[in-house]
């Protein structure tokens, strides 16, 4: 028999009864009865109950063995009594009577309980991540991650894609976040950068004549943590294709995404095909370019109803609309009937505190004597006929509530979009049993940079502008540039952006012109993107791609709200690895080797 086990703790069934079995694992839980000691023994595969009787010479040793110690046990597998069967575990019909007991590794007092999975402070969980990973939920999440990656890889290969690995040490490239820099020992004073994404390399693979590339790619960005974003590193399904249009990319990647979600949906629905929503439409209907389509209501621009102050007597909104601002209505279905005023006031407080907004106006709609009215200030002075027009335009009915976000268009839509998400959650209108995807298309090529008071790239500087050179040449003002669209697209699922992609600008003259429009000279392009622009001068195929985020895919499938629950060894919100004590100070000898000298930190800076 094997030194440690004949079976795993998850595979024994009634059909094995009578066999001599050897198991190894962790002491998950102990229960001492008057005439026996019961141990739930856990390994990677599951849990098996083992029983030790007082006549055994190792009974006292087993009693003293702490939880999470590693043991090996051997004995005969027995059928449990009918009343003792545990239907919650797959091995619940059997138990192992222990004849031999070996303590392989004694556990000291553990700082983090594994059994029961109680809530525990995050710093303790991250510092003792190896214990946290023994917990059933987190363990399953990490196993799910591995299965999802295997599924993605298999589906890409089945579609004719080939996996390549791109460099980790590379040059700095402006891709929207801070680089992680790595000093070069052999080239003093110079630095590599860890790739924010394999963007330029995957395009160069296409120029090199390969046709369909993919990679489960590590990406590195020095950015702040969020619930759906890990600081430091993340992984994406990076892919690129040659001789394709936007539709070809959609046709290749949509079955992969839908297939993976269907495979691991665990009873949840996956709606296909994915609808296509232009960026402007998404902002108008949902206040966001990552809409949660599970929420069964949309925003409505109601500015026209507040232009004539004589019809509304609500001067604040009239002033905003006359100044070129917007008033956006956010429905709250049945909220007047189902919620107290406290709900409405709480939303207003949330807007002021969490969103730093002036607030959210609101109105409750009630019907009396066949006439719908509102006693709240925003709609109080609407005549019955005018209110009827308003309700028809917004789809509201008696018993509903409605909130109002007002101000500059961008600010009003931003607040309205966040409010839509919060209202949907608060009123429990979000269907948790479905994955609703969409493609967001027709992103603007450029956007207004308020900090620098200039037009700049909005999404990806390497994207192909719709209309090509002719459209770029015709965009001779900032206003026309801001109207220019690109072949850029995102995949969104349940309000989470899973990926961004684009058809690439593969023509050197077009790339120079696209950068020139926002103030970058040809010399800058030649310097910053030398490898790519030089390659394009030697025959580049039309190409495009996309890069769905693996961490976010697994987060959605696992049903968790934080990305740290699907990453083996994540950092905390301050980009620290509490388990490995990273980042740490460098040894002076290491700094000398790298020709580096640290400047004292100024606490005032």
Structural commentary:
Strands 6, 9, 10, 11, 12, 19, 22, 23 and 24 form a nine-stranded mixed sheet that branches. The model has no long low-confidence stretch (mean pLDDT 95). Helix 4 crosses helix 20. The chain is globular and about 90 Å long. It is of the alpha+beta class. The protein has 21 helices and 24 strands.
Mean pLDDT, to the nearest integer, reads 95
- Helix/strand-derived category reads alpha+beta
Our Rg estimate from Cα atoms comes to: 30 Å
Low-pLDDT ranges: none
Number of separate helices: 21
Q: What fraction of the residues are assigned to beta strands by DSSP?
A: 15-25%
Largest sheet: 9 strands, mixed
Q: What does the oligomeric state look like here? A: single chain
Outline type: globular
Binned, the helix content reads 25-40%
Please provide the count of β strands. Answer: 24
Label this structure with key terms.
5-stranded mixed barrel, alpha+beta, 605 residues, 24 strands, 21 helices
Secondary structure layout plus pairing:
Layout: E1 20-32, E2 37-43, E3 46-52, H1 59-64, E4 70-79, E5 94-105, H2 122-127, H3 129-132, H4 136-158, E6 162-163, E7 181-183, E8 191-193, H5 199-207, E9 212-221, E10 232-242, H6 246-263, E11 269-271, E12 276-278, H7 279-286, E13 300-301, H8 309-312, H9 315-322, E14 326-332, H10 335-338, H11 341-353, E15 361-364, E16 366-368, E17 371-373, H12 377-380, H13 384-394, E18 401-407, H14 409-426, E19 434-441, E20 446-449, E21 454-457, H15 468-474, H16 478-483, E22 488-493, E23 496-503, H17 508-516, H18 522-528, H19 530-536, E24 543-546, H20 550-558, H21 588-593
Parallel strand pairs: 3-5, 6-9, 11-19, 12-19
Antiparallel strand pairs: 1-2, 1-4, 2-3, 4-5, 7-8, 9-10, 10-24, 13-14, 14-18, 15-18, 16-17, 19-22, 20-21, 22-23, 23-24
Helix pairs in contact: 4-6, 4-20, 5-19, 15-17, 18-19
């Amino acid at each position: 028999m094997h030194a440690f086990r004949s079976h795993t703790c998850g595979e024994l069934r009634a059909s094995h009864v009578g066999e001599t079995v050897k198991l190894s694992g962790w002491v998950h839980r102990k229960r001492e009865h008057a005439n026996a000691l019961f141990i739930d023994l856990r390994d990677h595969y599951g849990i098996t109950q083992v029983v030790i009787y007082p006549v055994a010479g190792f009974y006292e040793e087993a009693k003293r063995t702490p939880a999470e110690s590693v043991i090996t046990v051997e004995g005969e597998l027995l059928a449990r009594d009918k009343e003792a069967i545990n239907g919650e575990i797959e091995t619940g019909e059997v138990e192992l009577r222990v004849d031999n007991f070996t303590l392989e590794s004694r556990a000291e007092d553990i700082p983090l309980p594994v059994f029961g999975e109680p809530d525990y402070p995050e710093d303790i969980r991250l510092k003792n991540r190896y214990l946290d990973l023994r917990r059933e939920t987190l363990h399953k999440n990490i196993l799910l991650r591995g299965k999802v990656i295997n599924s993605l890889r298999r589906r890409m290969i089945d579609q004719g894609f080939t996996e390549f690995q791109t460099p980790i040490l590379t040059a700095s490239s402006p891709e929207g976040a801070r680089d992680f820099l790595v000093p070069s020992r052999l080239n003093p004073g110079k630095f590599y950068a860890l790739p924010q994404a394999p963007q330029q390399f995957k395009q160069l693979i296409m120029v090199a004549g390969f046709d369909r590339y993919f990679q489960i790619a590590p990406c590195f960005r020095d950015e702040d943590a969020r619930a759906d974003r890990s600081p430091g590193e993340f992984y994406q399904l990076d892919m690129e294709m040659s001789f394709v249009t936007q539709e070809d990319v959609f046709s290749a990647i949509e079955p992969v995404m839908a297939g993976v979600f269907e495979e691991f949906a665990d009873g949840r629905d996956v709606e296909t095909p994915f609808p296509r929503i232009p960026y402007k439409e998404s902002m108008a209907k949902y206040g966001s370019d990552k809409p949660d389509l599970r929420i069964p209501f949309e925003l409505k621009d109601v500015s026209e109803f507040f232009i004539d102050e004589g019809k509304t007597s609500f001067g604040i909104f009239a002033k905003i609309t006359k100044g070129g601002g917007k008033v956006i209505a956010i429905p709250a279905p049945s909220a007047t009937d189902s919620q107290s005023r406290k709900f409405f006031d709480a939303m207003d407080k949330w807007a002021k505190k969490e969103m730093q907004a002036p607030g959210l106006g609101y109105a409750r709609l009630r019907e009396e004597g066949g006439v719908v009215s509102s006693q709240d200030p925003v709609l109080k002075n609407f005549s019955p006929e005018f209110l009827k027009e308003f309700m028809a335009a917004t789809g509201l009915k008696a018993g509903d509530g409605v909130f109002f976000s007002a101000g500059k268009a961008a600010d009003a839509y931003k607040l309205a979009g966040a409010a839509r998400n919060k209202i949907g959650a608060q009123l429990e209108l979000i269907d948790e049993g479905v994955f609703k995807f969409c493609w967001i298309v027709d992103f603007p090529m450029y956007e207004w940079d308020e900090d620098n008071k200039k037009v700049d790239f909005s999404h990806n500087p390497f994207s192909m502008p719709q209309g090509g050179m002719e459209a770029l040449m015709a965009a001779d003002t900032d206003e026309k540039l801001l109207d220019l669209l690109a072949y850029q697209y995102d995949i969104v699922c349940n309000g989470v952006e899973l990926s961004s992609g684009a058809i690439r600008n593969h023509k050197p003259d077009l790339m120079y012109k696209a950068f020139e429009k926002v103030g970058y000279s040809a010399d800058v392009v030649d310097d910053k993107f030398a490898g790519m622009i030089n390659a394009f001068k030697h025959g580049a195929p039309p190409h495009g791609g996309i890069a769905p985020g693996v961490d976010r895919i697994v987060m959605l499938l696992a049903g968790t709200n934080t990305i740290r629950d699907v990453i083996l060894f994540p950092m905390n919100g301050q980009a620290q690895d509490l388990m490995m004590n990273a980042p740490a100070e460098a040894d002076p000898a290491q700094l000398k080797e790298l020709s580096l000298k640290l400047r004292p930190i100024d606490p005032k800076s």
